[in-house]
# Entry
Amino acid sequence: MKRLRLFVFAWLLHFKMLSQSAFDGFLAILWPLFFATVAFFMFRAGRGSAVLGPVALGAAVMGVWTATSVSASSALQRERRLGTLELLVASPTNLALVLLPITLATSTIGLYCIVATLLWARFLFGVHIPVAHPLTFGLGIVGIVVTIGSLGFLMAVAFVRSRRAWAIGAVTEYPVWLVCGFLVPISLLPNWVRPISWLLGPTWGMRAIRAGAYGGPHALLDIAACFGLAAAYVLLGVLVLGTVLDSARRRASLSLT
Amino acid sequence: MKGLRVFFVGGLISYRALFGFLSLWIFVPALILTPIFQILLFAYIGRAAGVGSDEFYVIGNAIQYSSVPCLFAMTQTIADERFWQTLGPILISPAGRLPLFLGRALPVIVNGLFVAAFSLFVGGLLLGTTLDGATWARLAPVLLVGAFSCTGLGLVNAAIGLRVRETAVLSNVFVGLLLIFCGANVALSTLPGWMAVISRGLPLTHTIEAARAVAAGASLASVRGLLGREAVVGLAYAALGVAMLRFFEQQSRRHATLERV
# Structure
């Protein structure tokens, strides 16, 4: 219960803090809108307005990854800069329990992006999204936020030794948009890319959201894969974090000074 | 002679300082890898949408991405001085403002040219739209004019950086607007009329159009008009940027806000 309380409060605190930030809040919402607008114009010019619905859903989910990729990758670096990393590591609470709510808060900011992009699509491009299966749609949205937050946690842990973690996170923005099939069907990508798509939770979350909106087979399997991969990212992250912290303690290199 | 020294040496030192802070760990992901990914992203969106050719997106995005170094680097070479509290000593120095600020623009233009050319080359290799040597020779001045023009907008952004704190957000907003408006991915003929009108007043629009024409075999002389218009757009932004720098400098002196971060 104590751990759950810590988790919820940390998530809420960081969500509020990120919402106040011009970079992590305002820009994270605005940035995917630029890409969504370009995508709407491109698809409307090529295949007509009829296909804009699925495009709008993909563009909306792009924002969740945008909100997470840079902020989550640099979450530990931010604590280091603020001088709180050593305190967090030294506290009796497992660092994973502190870090995971931060990365989940960054992906929760993505909910703003989803709403903003869908409203943008509705009022500027006249895109109407029918939600055929509200429960599947809702679970898909929750799944994508959770799986992206968990992937962000894994990235935060993986880049803990880097001062430039945000730059590494930023470089993953377009590849994940592409490989997870947000705007481009995965079948259009080279064959060798497909296994990478399958290993990324957002791929399955995107499929579940589209199935929730337009109907489609295997939606429950998509949702299960989305949450299953999220759990795998967290588990892997916790294991890596333990190793990394041991190494940092042994070498006294936590602060990277 | 002193002005020339401030222009060339001062500009170079400022730029080296900028990337001294930024390091290769940021230069490579941000200016080498990301433009390639942007090219691939839009080329595949184009394939999925059934609009445009790979060459259309390679050229458009390689040139559009040069706005990132031009806007960010130009802005940070001035805004960082404010952040590190060194802007005051620079501004009380007797150095002329024009060589001081414009000197910082020169390495930015060269960097923008490099980013555009490198992205065009690698993006072309990956998508099988390589250009021959003669086309590259004709493209070089086109890319240079584009980088100059966008750096002009960067100077405006840098001036705003004397007043606002969130320069990174502002630079991203400009980059995003250019993505929509400058014809990198959406042909101007497809944009609504009012957007196409705005596009003509923004950097890179004419450069992208000229580069596509040159890649299709047009001579440099035949795109002279486009390059001339791009240069005029760049000069207008540069002049506006210098005027804004002067204005905000005076305002900061008057209100003692120069080093407020």
Summary: Chain A has twelve helices and no strands. Chain A has a mean pLDDT of 90. The two ends of chain A are 37 Å apart (CA to CA).
